[in-house]
Specification:
The structure holds 2 protein chains of 2 kinds.
Chain A: E1 5-7, E2 10-14, E3 19-24, E4 30-38, E5 45-50, E6 56-59, E7 62-67, E8 72-77, E9 86-94, E10 102-103, E11 107-112
Parallel strand pairs in A: 2-11
Antiparallel strand pairs in A: 1-3, 3-8, 4-5, 4-9, 6-7, 7-8, 9-10, 9-11
Chain B: E1 4-7, E2 10-13, E3 19-25, E4 31-38, E5 42-51, E6 54-57, E7 64-66, E8 76-78, E9 87-94, E10 103-104, E11 108-112
Parallel strand pairs in B: 2-11
Antiparallel strand pairs in B: 1-3, 3-8, 4-5, 4-9, 5-6, 7-8, 9-10, 9-11
Classes of the chains: A mainly beta, B mainly beta.
Chain lengths: 113, 113
Amino acid sequence: ILNVEQSPQSLHVQEGDSTNFTCSFPSSNFYALHWYRWETAKSPEALFVMTLNGDEKKKGRISATLNTKEGYSYLYIKGSQPEDSATYLCAFKGDTSYGKLTFGQGTILTVHP
Amino acid sequence: NAGVTQTPKFQVLKTGQSMTLQCAQDMNHEYMSWYRQDPGMGLRLIHYSVGAGITDQGEVPNGYNVSRSTTEDFPLRLLSAAPSQTSVYFCASSNSGSGYEQYFGPGTRLTVT
């Protein structure tokens, strides 16, 4: 079983704060690293799919970086808003596992007004 | 496109009963997966399929069966429901062309009493 770890498990910030969380994954047999945003009572939705070492992706106030050699990815949220409150999941895709992904346990972000 | 659809949305079963959770996608995706979501456990893979007629076990397959007779449909069968199978079940589909980005259905909330 692959080990995909996310930290912290939960995070409380004030509106306007910037924040970041970490996903660590195996550094061998890498194919892709995914980030998903999961709001309560909804389904997870993809934020980023990252495949190259050194990749940086950005969508509005959210950005992510990828280091495949050391096996970690950071997700950053600049100027957090209450609507950013959600669980953020990362998922690892190995190069020998066809369409199979392994998810981390998620970071629960709560942004207080 | 409807995307990924799941039925039912909610279900209550008694211990020992069997049932099938339905999943369908209209995006012609080759890969389909079933996950279960439990508090503090993230998303855990139950079974997945890399194409019609081909399925394989994920991380937590015991007590579940799947089949994939068409590209569109991927039903999940609970053989003899147990309280430990109380969970929220998500079906997802993906394609290699988008880095296996997962498109999730709305989920089925199952309670086994």
